[in-house]
Amino acid sequence: MNVYEEVEAFYQSYRGEKTVIGESAEGRKLYAMFVGTHTSPVGICQYAIHAREWICACLALWHIRRGLVRGGAWIVPLANPDGALLVQEGAESVSARRRGELLYLNGGADFSLWKANARAVDLNVNFDARWGTGASNVRMPSAANYVGIAPFSEPETRALRDFTCAVQPQFTISYHTKGEEIYWRFHQPFWRLRRDKRLAKILSAATGYPLREAPLSAGGYKDWCVEKLRIPAFTVEAGREDFTHPLGLSALGDVVTKNLDALVRFTEEF
């Protein structure tokens, strides 16, 4: 069973509130499941927007099982299903019309380090937050860092944008791998810096991960939430630095152990 099938099976059996927020470039559904209650704070947590970081989707299912004591959260376990399956199953996982180009861009059939979606756009630089200004951004289709032809050019990022605007969350958390660190800053004014750093410290204490800054990055989901929605938003890089991409199930125990209670503690102290 691949990671998309695992998320889909979990979604179908889930008895709580749930919805489909959109579809990927290849027509795969983007699932969201709600945990907790619709009392403050309510947020959105999205996982595995980078293809090779599909292990985050497995963590998402553990977060859903764990639930919340205070507040609530919409969990989007697999924000980039096409990319995840490229990593797990190769070019045969996408439609025939895309295979040749993807194999060419990738330089071969081993997609294990692929980050982008099935259109070779890095979804986490495709949001409208100083789009295209990141130090690592590229302007041509690529396995990583291609910003797309315009902000929100991809169905996956449009789905996250529209869902986020509909929910109007009080916070968002994005789970990535790896490095065991938390990013929280994106050009906030002073009064929001104080608010956001206080919350970042809660997440840091819950995971044991230090806070970091990435002043040369742009266009991410976290960045867009901070700049456009003016809410606290965080990127959590789970998994030890000595793990190698793509993190597999052998790394899941470490990731879950350090992050299982993170959302519970964060919402309790929000």
Any key phrases for this structure?
single chain; Aminopeptidase; 9 helices; 8 strands; 37% helix
Description:
This protein has one domain: Aminopeptidase. Helices cover 37% and strands 16% of the residues. The chain is built from 9 helices and 8 strands. It has helices at 3-13, 55-66, 81-89, 96-106, 155-167, 190-207, 221-229, 252-259, 262-269, and strands at 18-23, 29-36, 42-47, 72-76, 171-177, 181-183, 211-212, 233-238. Strand 6, helix 6 (190-207) and strand 7 form a beta-alpha-beta unit. It starts with a helix and ends with a helix. The mean pLDDT is 98.
Concise description?
With 270 residues, the protein is of the alpha/beta class. The chain has helices spanning 3-13, 55-66, 81-89, 96-106, 155-167, 190-207, 221-229, 252-259, 262-269, and strands spanning 18-23, 29-36, 42-47, 72-76, 171-177, 181-183, 211-212, 233-238. Strands 1-2-4-3-5-8-6-7 form an eight-stranded mixed beta sheet, with helices on both faces.
